[in-house]
C-alpha cells in the first residue's frame, strides 16, 4: 500500500532542507554518517512534508542502499554467530546495515534467499563456502552484486574470499591425534554434499593418515547433519561397533558436544576410554565437561576482515582476492593417548 | 548500478509470457507458489529478454514483496534460534522469505534495523518483546507495515503478540524453588533496561516471595549482559559474598551455564552445595553437567504461530490480538534442597 499511494518525494524533502537528495537518503539510511545539524534540518523537512521514505526513490538517489546481505547455513548452535557479530559491528562502523538469511544447509533455499536479498537491494552479499550452482555466481555478476566467500579459502578459485583452509586445519589436528598414538579413528562428519567445508575436513584427516603411510581404512566415517542429538547418536553407533575407535574426530563442536554426551551415557570416560575432538572453538567447547580439544577458528577476525573486504568490493568494485587466516589448535581435556597403549 | 541502467521491464516479460505482471513477480519471488508450466514460460521470457528483476518494479506489481523481517536481540547463544527456525519454515511454506537483523540488545541499532527492513520493502516485522520507543510503533503504523511482538505476552497492551507471560513463568519456577526450602536466593538477571522479558522474570521471583510473605530482601540480584562468561563472573561474586545464596536463579540458560561453570571452578557441587536454575530450555540446558532445571519455552510452537499470525496481519490487515502460550517447568538435575536443611 505504502508503495502505490501518492507521497511527497525525496526531491521535495531535499529542496525544503536545502541539501542534495543523496544527503537526505543518507540521513534516513545511515544517520550516523551525517552531521547532527544537517540531520536535524532534513528530519524537520521530512516531518513537515509527512515524507515516508520510498525505497525505490532512495535507491535512485543513493545508488547504494547501504545494506549488506549474509546467507548462513544455520542460526542454530552459534557456529556462525561470533563471526557474524563482528561482521555486523564492522559494517555498522562503516554505515551499513546487515540482513541475514539462514538456508538450513539447503541449496534451494539458499538460492531463494540470495535472489530475495538482491531483489531487496543488497549492495553486496556474504556467502559461506564456495560450493553452489555456478549459475548463481553468474546471476550475481549480471546483477552487479559483489559476493564474498567466507569460512573457506581456496587459492585456486577466482572468487573474493576470507577464510581458512579447512583441509589443512583438520590435517593439523589429525596429526596431533596420530602423535598420541591413535590408529582406530572414528569420524563424525557433517553432511558433505553441498558443503565444501565438511568435505575438506574429512579429507584433511585422510591427508594426515597418508602422510604417515597409514591406510584410510583405519577410519570409520559417519555423516550426519550438524546437531547435538545427531552427534550423540553417531557416537553411540561408533562405540557399539565390534572394534570401537580410540578417538572420535567430529566435524564441528556441536557434533563433538553430542559425542561427549553419547560417551557419557554409555559409561565411557573421556579421554580415558575414548578421545573426542571438535572444530570451530565456539563457546560450547568450553561449556562441556571435559572441555573440548578443537580447532580454533578466528571467528571475530574473519568477520571483521570480511566486512572490510566486502565494503571494498561494493565501493570500489575491485576484487580483494582470496585471503587466508591462520588457524590454531586449542588443546583442552578431551584428547589423550589411546587406552591400550 | 543495476538500478539506473535501462533494462527490459516486468511488463515486457509479462507480455512475452502471456501472463500478468503479478504472476511474473511471483515466479521470481516465490517460484514454489507457481505451477511448473507457467514458471517455465515466464523464465523463458526472462531469459530471452535478459530481464533482471528490478525491485522497484516488482513492488509495484506485487504490492507485497513476500519478505518478512525479524529483528532479534542476538544471534549468539541460540536463544532465539529454534523459534526463528520454525518461524522461517512456516513462512517458507507460505511463500515468504525471512530476513533477520540482530540488534545486540541496543535500541538505537534496533531502530536502524527496523527502518532498514521497512526501506527494503519488508511486508511485516517480527519484534522481540514490547519495550521500545513508542515513536517506532507510530512509524510502522504510518508505513503500514504490520508488526508482531513475540517472546512476550501482555494482555493489556494493544499490539498483536504471540508469547508467554515471562513474569508468571518465573514465578512458577521460584515457587518450586521455595518449596524445596530455599530462602537465600541469588539472581543473575539480564540487563533490565529496555528488556521487558528480563524485568518481568525478576518480578516473577518477587511475586513468589510475596505470595509466601517472604521479604524480597532475601534476594540478591546481579544484572549483567546475557553471556556465558558473565554468568560465571556473577556466580563467583555471589558465592564469595559473606552469606552466599543456597540457590541461584538465572535469567536465561546461557547465564545458568556460566553459573554452573563458576560453581565448579570454586569447588561447589550442584545441587549439593548450591542449586542453579535457568530459563528458555535451549539445547545448552541438556549439554551442561549436571543437566539444567529450567523454564521450558515452546520455541517451535511460538515460531510457527508467529508466522501464521504475521501473515494474517500482512494479508488481511486484521490484528490477531495477543495470544498466550503455555510454559512448563523442566525439572532436571540442578535444583535440590538447600544444604543446611
From TrEMBL, chains A, B:
Residues passing through the membrane, by range: none
GO molecular function: DNA-binding transcription factor activity; transcription cis-regulatory region binding
Signal sequence interval, chain numbering: none
Alphabetical list of InterPro entries matching this protein: HTH_LacI, LacI/GalR-like_sensor, Lambda_DNA-bd_dom_sf, Peripla_BP_I
Domain spans labelled HTH lacI-type: 8-62
Keyword DNA-binding: yes
SMART domains, per database record: HTH_LACI (SM00354)
Pfam families documented for this protein: LacI, Peripla_BP_3
Record keywords: DNA-binding, Transcription, Transcription regulation
Protein name listed in UniProt: LacI family transcriptional regulator
Amino acid at each position: 500500500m505504502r508503495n502505490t499511494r501518492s507521497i511527497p518525494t525525496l526531491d521535495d524533502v531535499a529542496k525544503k532542507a536545502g541539501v542534495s537528495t543523496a544527503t537526505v537518503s543518507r540521513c534516513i539510511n545511515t544517520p550516523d554518517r551525517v552531521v547532527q545539524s544537517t540531520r536535524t534540518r532534513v528530519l524537520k523537512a521530512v516531518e513537515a512534508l509527512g515524507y515516508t521514505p520510498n525505497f525505490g526513490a532512495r535507491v535512485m538517489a543513493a545508488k547504494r542502499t547501504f545494506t549488506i546481505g549474509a546467507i548462513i547455513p544455520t542460526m542454530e548452535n552459534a557456529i556462525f554467530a561470533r563471526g557474524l557479530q563482528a561482521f555486523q559491528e564492522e559494517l555498522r562502523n562503516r554505515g551499513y546495515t546487515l540482513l541475514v538469511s539462514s538456508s538450513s544447509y539447503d541449496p534451494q533455499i539458499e538460492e531463494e534467499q540470495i535472489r530475495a536479498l538482491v531483489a531487496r537491494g543488497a549492495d553486496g552479499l556474504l556467502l559461506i563456502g564456495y560450493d553452489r550452482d555456478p549459475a548463481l555466481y553468474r546471476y550475481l555478476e549480471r546483477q552487479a552484486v559483489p559476493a564474498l566467500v567466507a569460512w573457506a579459502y581456496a587459492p585456486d578459485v577466482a572468487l573474493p574470499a576470507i577464510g581458512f583452509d579447512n583441509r589443512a586445519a583438520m590435517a593439523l589436528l589429525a596429526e596431533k591425534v596420530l602423535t598420541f598414538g591413535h590408529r582406530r579413528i572414528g569420524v563424525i562428519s557433517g553432511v558433505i554434499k553441498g558443503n565444501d567445508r565438511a568435505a575438506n575436513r574429512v579429507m584433511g584427516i585422510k591427508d594426515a593418515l597418508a602422510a604417515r603411510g597409514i591406510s584410510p581404512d583405519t577410519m570409520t566415517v559417519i555423516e550426519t547433519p550438524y546437531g547435538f542429538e545427531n552427534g550423540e547418536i553417531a557416537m553411540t553407533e561408533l562405540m557399539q561397533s565390534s572394534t570401537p575407535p580410540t578417538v572420535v574426530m567430529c566435524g564441528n563442536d556441536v557434533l563433538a558436544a553430542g559425542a561427549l554426551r553419547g560417551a557419557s551415557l554409555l559409561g565411557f570416560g573421556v579421554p580415558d576410554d575414548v578421545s573426542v575432538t571438535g572444530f570451530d572453538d565456539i563457546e560450547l567447547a568450553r561449556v562441556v565437561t571435559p572441555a573440548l580439544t578443537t580447532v580454533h577458528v578466528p571467528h571475530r577476525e574473519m568477520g571483521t576482515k570480511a566486512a572490510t573486504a566486502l565494503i571494498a568490493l561494493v565501493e570500489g568494485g575491485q576484487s580483494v582476492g582470496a585471503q587466508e587466516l591462520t588457524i590454531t589448535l586449542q588443546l583442552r581435556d578431551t584428547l589423550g593417548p589411546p587406552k591400550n597403549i
